[in-house]
Amino acid sequence: MNRVLDATIAGLGLVIGSPALAVAAAAIKLDDGGPILYRQRRVGLNGEGFELLKLRTMQVGAEHTGAGYAVNEGDPRITRVGGLLRRLSVDEIPQLWNVVRGDMSLIGPRPTLSYQVERYTPRQRRRLEVKPGITGWAQIHGRARLPWEERIELDVWYVEHRSPWLDLRILARTPAALFAGTYKGESGGWRA
User: Fold this and answer.
1) pTM, full prediction
2) pLDDT tens-digit map of 78-134
3) Read out DSSP for 84-111?
4) Sign of torsion, CA 170 20 17 184?
5) Each residue of 18-48: pLDDT tens digit?
6) Are 91 and 85 in contact (CB under 8 A)?
7) Neighbours of 181 (CB within 10 A)
8) What pLDDT sits at residue 65?
């Protein structure tokens, strides 16, 4: 998507989503008193790192316990409020700020973790040729329920075929995909 259009839509999304963010922030704080935002280092365009923002849906320090970065359905590390925020994908709204800042786009491959990038094949590295997105081709085709290699291949297909019409198609199908679930299963979608 065009950078100006990205920033404009993301800015409007933040304004429209601000009441939901305010309610979610209060609920997170009341639930366990921990921080409202979860910040995580991710890999973006051309392998550059950036700080991804999300509403915190898990216990503080959850990435260092249990399944680590993988999140399974019924994961005991997910807070009571976090379960609802994940189901409604409200936890992703702060990423609109990442779009406004220019770290992300509305559409593109989901931002990845550095340990995953280290395992990429040369073909899989192609997904780093575009900015990561809030939604993308892999998201509308099954999100994290897909095996890792299939998600990456869908992302590379998007990189090779991206166009304004494809972006519109992705945007149109995103609302249905948001409510289809986000859990990755025992392996976190990653096959060693």
Assistant:
1) 0.87
2) 999 999 998 888 999 999 999 999 999 999 999 999 999 999 999 999 999 999 999
3) HHHHHTGGGTTHHHHHHHTS-EEESSPP
4) negative
5) 999 999 999 999 999 999 999 999 999 999 9
6) yes
7) 14
8) 87
In 60-180, which ranges are continuous DSSP H helix?
80-88, 95-101, 114-117, 148-161, 164-178
CA distance 53 to 172: 24
Distance of CA 25 to the CA centre of its chain: 18
- First and final CA of the chain: distance in angstroms? 33
Burial status of residue 94 (CB atoms within 10 A of its CB: 0-12, 13-18, 19 or more) = buried
Taking alpha carbons only, the member of 113, 5, 10, 96 closest to residue 53 is 96
Give the whole-number percent of the chain exceeding pLDDT 70.
Answer: 92
CA 23 to chain CA centroid, Å, is 21
Query: Who contacts 105 (Cβ-Cβ below 8 Å, separation ≥6)?
Result: 1, 6, 99, 130, 131, 132, 133, 134
Is 96 buried (19+), middle (13-18) or exposed (0-12) by CB count in 10 A? buried
- Give the DSSP H or E segment for 8: helix 3-32
Nearest to 174 by CA among 126, 112, 111, 106: 106
Contact at 8 Å (CB) between 114 and 159? no
Amino acid residing at 112: T
Q: Pick left, alpha or beta for residue 89 (phi over 0 → left; psi -120 to 50 → alpha; otherwise beta).
A: left
